[in-house]
Amino acid sequence: MPEVRLIGMSGSLRAGSYSNAVLRTLRDIFAGRADLELWDLEPIPPYNQDFEGDKRPLPVKAMLAAIAEADGLVLCAPEFNHSIPGVLKNALDWASRPAFTSVLAYKPVAIMATSRGPLGGARCLEHLHVALASMLARVTLAREVIITACHEKIQDGRLVDEISLGFACGAVEALLGEIEVWGAVDRAGA
Q1: Which of 29, 58, 88, 105 is the most buried (most CB within 10 A)?
Q2: For residue range 105-141, what is the model confidence (pLDDT) as tens digits?
Q3: Measured between alpha carbons, how far is 174 from 190 in angstroms, rounded to an integer?
Q4: CB atoms closer than 10 angstroms to residue 116
Q5: Which band of pLDDT confidence, cut at 50, 70 and 90, is reported for residue 183?
Q6: pLDDT digits (tens, 9 = 90+) for 1-46
Q7: Where on the phi/psi map is residue 119: left (φ > 0), alpha (ψ -120 to 50), or beta?
Q8: Residues ≥6 apart with Cβ < 8 Å to 120
Q9: Which stretch of DSSP H or E encloses residue 86?
Q10: If you write DSSP's letter for every residue of 128-187 in order, what string do you get?
C-alpha cells in the first residue's frame, strides 16, 4: 500500500510552538505509514478575494496544490481569544475557495488543540468544526484532542505525555482509517 500523504498545519508561527511540537511528534511516530509534511503558513498573505483564481499569490498556489495532492490534513492549533488563530483561519479561507468545490471539499481532516491553561482549546476545536463543515471538509470522527497544560507535556520539542499522545495518535489513526475506507470506495466507484 502506498504511503499516505498528509499535510500538517499549525495555528502558531512561534519558533517554540507547542502545536508544531505536536505535529513533529506525530510525523515521527507515523513515519513509514504516512508522510506528514508540516506546512509553513508564514508566507501566506492575508486573504483577499480580489486575488482568487489565477491571481492567487505563489505561496497560496503552492499550498493549494499540496492540499489537493494530500490524502488528508492534520490541524493543530492553540486557542486565541476563544477561537481559531488568525494564521490558520487565513490559510483555511484561501483553501476554501471556490466555495463548495475547493481543495478542502470532502478532504479528511483531523483536528487538535494545544493550551497552556486547563480549559483552552475546546472553543478552538468547536470553531474549527464549524468552519471546516462550511467548507465541506470531512472532520475525522475521533475523540477530541485537547492538550491542556501543554508547556508541561512537551519536552525538547516533543509531546511526551502518554495520555495526550494517545489521544493525538488516536485521531491520526482514525484519519488514516477514513482515508483507507474512502480510498477503497473511490477505487470501487472508478
Answers
A1: 88
A2: 999 999 999 999 887 799 999 999 999 999 999 999 9
A3: 24
A4: 15
A5: confident
A6: 568 999 999 999 999 999 999 999 999 999 999 999 999 999 999 9
A7: alpha
A8: 78, 79, 113, 146, 148
A9: helix 86-95
A10: HHHHHHHTT-EE------EETTHHHHEETTEE--HHHHHHHHHHHHHHHHHHHHHHHHHH
Where do we find the cell 488516536? 170
31: three-class secondary structure by DSSP: coil
> Are 107 and 137 in contact, with CB atoms under 8 Å apart?
yes
Amino acid at 64: L
As a whole number of angstroms, the distance between CA 152 and CA 44 comes to 31
159 CB-near residues (< 8 Å, 6+ apart): 21, 22, 25, 26, 147, 153, 165, 168
Amino acid residing at 127: H
Q: What is the amino acid identity at position 112?
A: M
